[in-house]
C-alpha cells in the first residue's frame, strides 16, 4: 500500500526552482488566499502575476543572474513578490533587519553591493547617499515600477546549487556575516521540515516574527508551497496576536516561549477560542514544564520545538509532540532529535573529535540545508573536516540521540528571539571616550530570557554614567542589541595569559539555574 500524499513533499518533488512552488499553486488554486493580515492581501494567482512583473522589470532594468536585491522593510506582501521575482529572474535575495542603525545598514550594503533595494519609506534615511543601485520605495516608486512592467514570467530561474539568499547574522568579530543559502538547500529544507507538521492547502499559518529571521521566512515558504496562507504582521502586539489567531482561524502558530508565557498568564489571552489551532511550533529556547502544560491547556494543540540556525535554514532538530510530556525520563529539557536526513554530533571543540554520549562538547551538524559558507568569507573556520558545521553551541547527546543544550561555545546572547553578539556591542561602547575596557554578557530576564549587561572599566579620572553608555549605543546599534544595564568595575577578570573570563562575570547572575543559556 502506498503512503498518503503530502502536499509539501509533492510540491518539492515537482520543483526544480523555488519559483516552481508558486507556479504550481497559482495554476491549481489561483484564487486561494496566499497572504492575509497586515498589508495588501493577495491570492496565489495574484502573487504569481505580480512577481512575474517585478522579475521582468528587474531584468529590463539590467539586473543580471546572480545580482543581489535587498529588502529593507517590515513584513509586507512586497517581500514575497520580491522573493519569487528573484527566483524567476535568477537573482539573490538579501532580507535586511529593519531595526539596524544607519552605520550597520551602510556596512551591509557596501558588503553585499545589491543592484536593487526595496525600502520602506520611513527607512529611506538609513540608506547611504553612496548607494548606487536601483531604489524602489514601497507604496510609491515600487508600485509604478511593477505597473509598468509586463506580467510575463521570464523563466530565468536559479536552480540547484545556485546562490539564492544571503541573510546577515552578526559575527563574533563585531561585523555581520552574510550566510549564503542555495536553491537546493531551501527546497530540501521546505520538504524536510514542512512534512513534519501536517501543512496543507487548508492551513493558516501565523508567523509574527520578521521575515529576515529564517524561522519566519522559512515557515512562510512552507505554508505557501502547500497552497495555504500566511497571516502577516507588520507590528506585533499581544492584542493583535490574539485577534489574528481567532479571527483568521489559524491552524499553525509559530512562537517563542516568552510569547507563550503571555498566553497562559493573561486572563484575556487564555479565555479566547483557539479551537482552530492544530500546532504550536516554538524555538529560540527550551520550554519550562509549567509553560508547556499551560500552553497545552490553553491551545489544546500539539506542541513542537525546533532548533536550528540561519546557517542550517532553521532545520537541525525537532522535539516532537510525543516528547512534550512531564514525568520520569522526560526529554522536555532537550532540543529534540535530528530531522531525518540531518546528522548531529557533539565533538571536542578543539580537536573536532566525537565525544561519548552524555559528554558536553560543541554541537556540529551536516546535511543538505547547511550553508556552503559566508559571503566573501568562504567557510571562515565554520567547519570541521567531514563537512561538519560548527554551531558554536555547547551541549550533549544522550544514548537515544536527544540533544541537550548547555551553554554557548561562543558568547552570543539570545534576547527575546533576537541574537546579540557581544563583540559588536563592545565595539560600539569602546568608542565612548570615558570607557577603557568593556565586556558584554547576557544576564537573566523574566521578559526576554536574557538581556545584555555591559561591564565597564572607566578611563582614569572619568566617571562613567550608565544611562549615557546606553544612549551612546542606541545611536550606533539597533536598540535590541544595546545593554539594558551597565555595571562599573575597577578591572575585568582575566586568566594568566590575559584572556577575558566572561564565564566568571556571568556566574553570579546565573547561579542556581540549570542552564547558562536562555
TrEMBL record:
Family matches, as Pfam families: AMP-binding (PF00501), AMP-binding_C (PF13193)
Residues of the AMP-binding enzyme C-terminal domain: 424-499
Sequence ranges assigned to domain AMP-dependent synthetase/ligase in this UniProt record: 23-375
Keyword Cytoplasm: no
Molecular function per GO: ligase activity
Signal sequence, start to end: none
Record InterPro entries: AMP-bd_C, AMP-bd_C_sf, AMP-binding_CS, AMP-dep_synth/lig_dom, ANL_N_sf, ATP-dep_AMP-bd_enzyme
SUPFAM superfamilies, alphabetized: Acetyl-CoA synthetase-like
Keyword terms, alphabetized: Ligase
PANTHER family membership: LONG-CHAIN-FATTY-ACID--COA LIGASE, NONRIBOSOMAL PEPTIDE SYNTHASE PES1 (EUROFUNG)-RELATED
Protein's name according to its UniProt entry: Fatty acid--CoA ligase
Species this chain originates from: Cryptosporangium japonicum
Amino acid at each position: 500500500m502506498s503512503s498518503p500524499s503530502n502536499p509539501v513533499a509533492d510540491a518539492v518533488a515537482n520543483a526544480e526552482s523555488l519559483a516552481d512552488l508558486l507556479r504550481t499553486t497559482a495554476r491549481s488554486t489561483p484564487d486561494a488566499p496566499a497572504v492575509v493580515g497586515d498589508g495588501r492581501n493577495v491570492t496565489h494567482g495574484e502573487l504569481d502575476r505580480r512577481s512575474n512583473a517585478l522579475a521582468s522589470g528587474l531584468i529590463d532594468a539590467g539586473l543580471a543572474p546572480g545580482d543581489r536585491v535587498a529588502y529593507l522593510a517590515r513584513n509586507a506582501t512586497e517581500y514575497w513578490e520580491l522573493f519569487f521575482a528573484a527566483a524567476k529572474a535568477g537573482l539573490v535575495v538579501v532580507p535586511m533587519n529593519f531595526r539596524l542603525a544607519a552605520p550597520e545598514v551602510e556596512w551591509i550594503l557596501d558588503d553585499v553591493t545589491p543592484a536593487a533595494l526595496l525600502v520602506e519609506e520611513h527607512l529611506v534615511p538609513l540608506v547611504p547617499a553612496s548607494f548606487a543601485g536601483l531604489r524602489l520605495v514601497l507604496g510609491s516608486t515600487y508600485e509604478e515600477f511593477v505597473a509598468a512592467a509586463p506580467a510575463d514570467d521570464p523563466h530565468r530561474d536559479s536552480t540547484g546549487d545556485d546562490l539564492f539568499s544571503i541573510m546577515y547574522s552578526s559575527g563574533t568579530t563585531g561585523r555581520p556575516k552574510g550566510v549564503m543559502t542555495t536553491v537546493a538547500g531551501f527546497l530540501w529544507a521546505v520538504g524536510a521540515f514542512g512534512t513534519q507538521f501536517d501543512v496543507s492547502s487548508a492551513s493558516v499559518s501565523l508567523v509574527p516574527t520578521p521575515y529576515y529571521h529564517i524561522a519566519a521566512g522559512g515557515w512562510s515558504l512552507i505554508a505557501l508551497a502547500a497552497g495555504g496562507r500566511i497571516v502577516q504582521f507588520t507590528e506585533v502586539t499581544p492584542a493583535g496576536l490574539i485577534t489574528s489567531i481567532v479571527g483568521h482561524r489559524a491552524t499553525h502558530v509559530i512562537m517563542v516561549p516568552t510569547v507563550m508565557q503571555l498566553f497562559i498568564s493573561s486572563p484575556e489571552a487564555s479565555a479566547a477560542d483557539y479551537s482552530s489551532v492544530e500546532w504550536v511550533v516554538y524555538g529560540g529556547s527550551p520550554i519550562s514544564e509549567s509553560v508547556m502544560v499551560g500552553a497545552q491547556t490553553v491551545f489544546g494543540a500539539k506542541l513542537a520545538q525546533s532548533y536550528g540556525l540561519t546557517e542550517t535554514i532553521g532545520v537541525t532538530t525537532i522535539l516532537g509532540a510525543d516528547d512534550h510530556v512531564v514525568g520520569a525520563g522526560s526529554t522536555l529539557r532537550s532540543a529534540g532529535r535530528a530531522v531525518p536526513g540531518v546528522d548531529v554530533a557533539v565533538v571536542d571543540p578543539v580537536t573536532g573529535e566525537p565525544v561519548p554520549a552524555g559528554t558536553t562538547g560543541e554541537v556540529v551538524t551536516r546535511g543538505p540545508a547547511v550553508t556552503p559558507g559566508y559571503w566573501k568569507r568562504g567557510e571562515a573556520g565554520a567547519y570541521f573536516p567531514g563537512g561538519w558545521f560548527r554551531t558554536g553551541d555547547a551541549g550533549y547527546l544522550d544514548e537515544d540521540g536527544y540533544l541537550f543544550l548547555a551553554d554557548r561555545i561562543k558568547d552570543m546572547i539570545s534576547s527575546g528571539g533576537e541574537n546579540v553578539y557581544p563583540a559588536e556591542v563592545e565595539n560600539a561602547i569602546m568608542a565612548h571616550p570615558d570607557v577603557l575596557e568593556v565586556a558584554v554578557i547576557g544576564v537573566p530576564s523574566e521578559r526576554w530570557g536574557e538581556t545584555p549587561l555591559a561591564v565597564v572599566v572607566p578611563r582614569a579620572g572619568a566617571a562613567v554614567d550608565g544611562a549615557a553608555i546606553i544612549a551612546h549605543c542606541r545611536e550606533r546599534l539597533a536598540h535590541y542589541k544595546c545593554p539594558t544595564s551597565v555595571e562599573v568595575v575597577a578591572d575585568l577578570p582575566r586568566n594568566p595569559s590575559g584572556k577575558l573570563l566572561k564565564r566568571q562575570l556571568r556566574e553570579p547572575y546565573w547561579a542556581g539555574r540549570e542552564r547558562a543559556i536562555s
